[in-house]
Amino acid sequence: MKEDLNIIAMIPARIGSTRLKMKNLALINGKPLISYAIEAAKISGVFSKIVVNADNKIFADIARRYGVDFYLRPSEIGTSTTKSDNVVYDFMLKHSSDVIAWVNPISPLQSGDEINEIINYFVRNELDTLITVKDEQVHCVYDRKPLNFKMEEVFAQTQDLKPVQSFVYSLMMWRNKTFIHAFEKQGYALFCGKMGYYTVSKESSIIVKTKEDVMLADYVMRAKASEEEFEVKYDSIIERLKD
Length: 243
Description:
Elements: E1 7-13, E2 27-28, E3 31-32, H1 33-44, E4 49-54, H2 58-65, E5 69-72, H3 84-94, E6 99-103, H4 112-124, E7 129-136, E8 141-142, E9 145-146, E10 164-175, H5 176-186, E11 195-199, H6 211-225
Parallel strand pairs: 1-4, 1-6, 4-5, 7-11
Antiparallel strand pairs: 2-3, 6-10, 7-10, 8-9
């Protein structure tokens, strides 16, 4: 890294998630969802401290189990209507550091190596804010208007389209001084200073918010844990192509 920065990983957890209650404790291949973010943060090797930032003391047991710190956020910012800006601001005031990285439990397939790459990208480009995204190289419209193609020309092949980037939120991070200054000046700061975006892997873009998402992540995690290496197989009719 260019800079010698004190970077803390903040792993947020709420007990009363709106779409899926107790989501962070849902089992993915036999382990709680939140554990994957903790372990990936540890494997990345870039953090001076890893802290579970939760609204319920039950997560203190999870933090203890996986050998990281625990912070019980104030009750007034532990509701479903609490804004992320307030959660980050409160955490920054209570945890002295240069940079806070929001390592999101909703992305259980994000690897420690990728987290390391994202942090180094942030530092190398001297960013103040970074948000992870995924590339959508398909025809996209917004408000019934084309975003990355033209209707007045031959239908473009998807591989020729300029990708549209959608937020993944698997990792977000901010330089503390920039964030705090913006928040105290205007009351919000999630997008402050010099912005940057990092395109994550397809696996990292699998986000868990619903029961169906838990099922998908569980299937993928079980497949990855299998000792059998995946191989693309084809229908037997392919033999006719050899004639």
